C-alpha cells in the first residue's frame, strides 16, 4: 500500500482545538485507522493540508472570522505543536455534490501539490462531507468521531465561547487562543452570533434575491442622487445601507466631492462583495471609495464628530422591520448624531406610514375584475415584469396580497366589497414602515393618509 504523504484536513477552521492537534499527531505517527478499520500508513515526510473552506466569507454567524486570520491562527498553532503543515484558502462556494472535488482541486492548484486518493487521506468528522470525499475515491479518517464519547468539535467550542461557558478556553489550542485574543476576534464572533437582524450567511433575510434587489436600487440611483445631492456636505460621506454602491457611484462623479472620502456601509455580505467588485472594475470615478460590512446598531463605525454627510435611503423601514423596532431607530439616530461633525448633515429618505392607521378605507381601483394570483416562483425577472405590466391595478392588488405575506411575513388582506373596490385598514403593512420618530439629528412626522416618500435633512451645529 502506498504511504500517505498528505493528510487533507478540510473545514472552516474558526478554532483549532487541543484535541485536533492531538488527533493529527496520531495520524501523522501512523497509529490511526480509516473509518473502514484499515491502518493508515503515513510517510515520514507527510504533511497536514489545512483547507480553509469559505475563506472569502466573513462577518457572519456561519463564518465570523476572516480567512486571513484563520490562516494565521493555523500557522501559529501548527508551528507551536510541531505539526508539518500547509495552509490553503478555498473560496466560498455553494454546497454541491462536487464540493469535495472543488476543495481538492483548489487546494492542489494553490499549493502546487497532487492530492490524489492514492497518497492522500482525508481527516473529517462531518458525515455528509465525508460521503463526498469517499465518492471521490478518498479514504476518510475520523477526527472527533474517532473517540467514544466524541470530543467537542470546533463549532461546539465556538458556541461555548459565544456564551462564555465555563471551561471553553481549556478546549482551545493555546496558540490559537492567543491569536483570537490578540486580534479581538472573540468579540467579533459574539457580535456575529448575537446580531438579530442578520442571517447566518450575513444577509437581512434568507429569501432575498440580491440580483433583483441590486437592480432595483441601481435603477433608482439617478433619481435618488438628484434628490439628496443639494444637501451633501463634502468631506467624509457615508452611505448607510449602501447596497451595491449605486448612490456612491453617482457621488464619485461629482467634481465638488473629488477630495472627499466616500464610505459604503451595509450589513449584507453579498451586497458589500458586489460593491467591492464594482469598485475593483473601475466603476467609481473617485479612487477614495471604501466599503465595509458593519452594523451601526452593534457598535459605532466611525470616530465621534468625524462624518460630514450620512445618507440613509430606504433604510429606516428595514431597521423597524427587524430586531427591536423603534428602540433600534432611536439608537441609529443617536449613533449618527455621535459620528456627525459640526456642520455635518444626516440625509434620510424613506416611506412614512399613514396617520390613523387602523381607519378602514375603500380603495377604488381601475379594473372591475380582481383576477387570480399566480405563483411566480422560479420565473426570471423579465417574465415577472411582463406579467405584472399586463395587470390592471385591481389585479395587481390581488397578486400583491398573495406574494407579500408569503415572502415577507407581513399582512395584506384586502376585502373585495364591490367590483373594483377593496376594503382594508389604512395602515396595512405594505412594508414594515417605522412609526413617526424624532431623532437627535432631525425630525420625522407622519401626516399622510397613505404611505409616501419623504426626505429629511438634519444638521449638526
Automatic annotation (TrEMBL):
Organism for this UniProt entry: Litorihabitans aurantiacus
Top-level taxonomic group: Bacteria
Bias (Low complexity) ranges: 436-461
Domain Methyltransferase: 237-319
Location of region: Disordered: 423-461
Coiled-coil region: none
Name of the protein described by the UniProt record: Methyltransferase domain-containing protein
Lineage, top ranks: Bacteria, Bacillati, Actinomycetota, Actinomycetes, Micrococcales
